[in-house]
Write a structure and sequence with these properties.
With about 350 residues, this protein is an alpha/beta fold. The protein is about 35% helix and about 10% strand. The protein is globular, with a radius of gyration of 19 Å.
Length: about 350
């Protein structure tokens, strides 16, 4: 496996990153099975593992900690995240004060809680899961810098931040002599290409590593959603059914595109999932792509995608289906500024 530099952190990571979002109550509640999946990934060269405190209310971190206990911990680049309320999750409508966000108070407490659940003395990459317009970026960066100096984290980054926030953070870090963000974790797939317009060029300009999430677009590009299969009701479709509603015109378009992409994959002699992952990894600004298996079969069918090389003709053919910078479902997986809310726009 070809390991790549993770931005300017000095760490080398595998092109596939094991995402543990589906370990625990959100996906696979069998801890022993999840540990076996993690070990299988490590045994096949993956050295990059990503989780978050909010996944299954901390259960994913507990499972990850079990899997990395002992000598395996030293060989793994371990990433986790904070921002959302652990109890209630990312879609919580009622949020208790000071239990979420990017304030110094919450970042410090969330990091200590994650260290305890993970059963480790340090986190390699600690990430802010989303922007927080209520907290000055100076406060967040200051807290993260303190965690580095305390030895609790080695580097830090962010997830799903717009390009303008990255530039502001870089300016603030330079002005205050802070360590800047080292990584960004945005969504990216054949169906979600908006980050090509400004975010990926910004990350390259700032020397940031990028670990992209949902490279299979929540399963749409896995090869398991095919025309005539009917409405999905299990897994991710059970948690966010609107995203998989076949009556939605955007999802109908995705289904048509899946058939065209599957034809390309068949001609190349690879699976649609491998084609989709190889396409994501082909972009020079992408460091690693996060794969999120729930069961062992999900992992084994994705391993090896990093070895596939796509020629110019194939890349052009995919561009003809979904143009660069385009997103099939409008604004999918894009952080929306609260400045667009009615309360912000009207006195």
């Amino acid at each position: 496996m070809q390991y790549k530099p993770l931005g300017r952190t000095g760490m080398l990571v595998s092109p596939l990153c094991l995402g543990n979002m589906m370990f625990g109550a959100w996906g696979n509640p069998d801890h022993d099975d999840c540990v076996r999946i993690i070990h299988h990934a490590l045994d096949h060269g993956i050295n990059f593992v990503d989780t978050a405190d909010v996944y299954s209310a901390g259960e994913s971190e507990v499972i990850t900690g079990k899997a990395l206990r002992g000598s395996r911990r030293d060989s793994v680049i371990l990433a986790t995240k904070c921002h959302f309320p652990v109890e209630g999750g990312p879609f919580a409508t009622e949020k208790a004060p000071n239990t979420w966000g990017n304030s110094r108070r919450h970042i410090i407490k969330a990091c200590d809680d994650s260290l305890r659940r993970l059963g480790t003395d340090w986190i390699d990459v600690y990430q802010l899961h989303r922007p927080d317009p209520n907290v000055p970026i100076e406060e967040s960066l200051s807290a993260l810098n303190d965690l580095v100096h305390q030895g609790k984290i080695r580097a830090f980054g962010c997830s799903t931040f717009p390009a303008e926030h990255l530039m502001e953070a870089a300016w603030v870090a330079d002005r205050n002599n802070f360590i800047p963000f080292s990584t960004e974790q945005p969504p990216y797939s054949i169906f979600v290409r908006w980050i090509e317009r400004d975010l990926l060029p910004t990350c390259r300009r700032l020397g940031m590593g990028t670990l992209v999430w949902s490279p299979l677009n929540g399963g749409w590009l896995s090869g398991t959603y095919r025309r005539g299969d009917g409405q999905r009701t299990e897994g991710r479709a059970a948690r966010t059914p609107s995203r998989y509603d076949l009556n939605d015109p955007a999802n109908q378009q995705k289904m048509e595109l899946v058939e065209s992409l599957a034809s390309i994959a068949d001609r190349l002699g690879v699976s649609l999932a491998h084609l989709s992952l190889a396409w994501v990894l082909h972009h020079p600004a992408v460091t690693s792509a996060i794969i999120g298996p729930r069961v062992m079969d999900h992992l084994t069918t994705l391993l090896g995608a990093e070895e596939i090389r796509l020629d110019t003709a194939t890349l052009d053919e995919i561009d003809a289906l979904v143009a660069p910078g385009r997103t099939v479902s409008p604004d999918e997986s894009k952080w929306e500024t609260p400045a667009l809310s009615r309360r912000s726009r009207r006195p």
